[in-house]
Amino acid sequence: MKVGILGGTFDPIHLVHLLSAEQAREQMGLDEVWFMPAQIPPHKDESGVSDARKRLRMVELAIQSIPYFRAVDFELERPGPSYTFDTITLMRDRFPEHEFYFIIGGDMIDYLPHWHRIQELVQCVQFVGVHRPGYCPDNEFAQKHVRMVEMPLIDLSSTFIRQRRREGQSIRFMVSDKVREYIEENRLYESR
User: Fold this and answer.
1) Nearest Cα to 41, choosing from 86, 12, 75, 73?
2) Which residues of 83-115 are buried (b: 16+ CB within 10 A; e: fewer)?
3) CA 105 to CA 153: how far, in whole Å?
4) Percent of all residues in the chain with a pLDDT value above 70, rounded to a whole number
5) For the domain that residue 67 is a member of, what is the CATH number?
């Protein structure tokens, strides 16, 4: 089985995450896409990230009606920073019959050569880059190790959604209705 892994903070998961996963699935011929929230993203300040179980729940709500999307908690099982190399090693041990593709946003591609144990990682997984507004990776590493997929360029981020919530503005049509309801019910991202 060909499985795409879309890792991230998902704080919150939004419609561009879903669109990216769908475009990668179709264009790369993937059987499934697994959404994998990070426990402690190594590139973010842990104090500013919402509770991991709440982020996982939002992912579950966002994808519940899509049979080939799946929420996984592999990175939530381990303490410490979530390094992709460690996670992929664990997944390959658990699912040796699967072929894994790691989906990343275009904004992350330039940083990819600096990832933890990247030279070993590119031997274990195929990276799939999703175009994002304002980012045009043009380096030798990306050309050698990243297969790009096209998608509509929509400039939407979790940071923008959190900011709108803090300002009391609507996030409708940026996240699924179930995720929006969960955010509102749990008073996430409101001004403190």
Assistant:
1) 75
2) bbbbbbbebeeeeeebebbbbbbbbbbeebeeb
3) 11
4) 93
5) 3.40.50.620
The number of residues in the chain equals: 192
Residue 123 in domain: yes
Burial code (b: 16+ CB inside 10 Å, e: under 16) for 4-32 equals bbbbbbbbbbbbbbbebbbbbbeebebeb
What pLDDT score does 94 carry?
A: 95
**Residue whose token pair is 């994998």:** 36
Dig out the tokens for 98 from the structure: 């699967």
User: Residue 173 domain-assigned?
Assistant: no
Neighbours of 177 (CB within 10 A): 11
**pTM for the predicted model, two decimal places:** 0.91
* Range of the structural domain that residue 28 is part of: 2-155
Q: Does residue 8 sit within a domain? A: yes
Which residues face 105 on adjacent strands? Answer: 130
Specify if 43 maps to a domain: yes
pLDDT at 142: 86
Considering the chain, what is the average pLDDT of its residues? 91
* Total tally of structural domains belonging to the chain: 1
Cβ atoms of 171 and 165 within 8 Å: the answer is yes
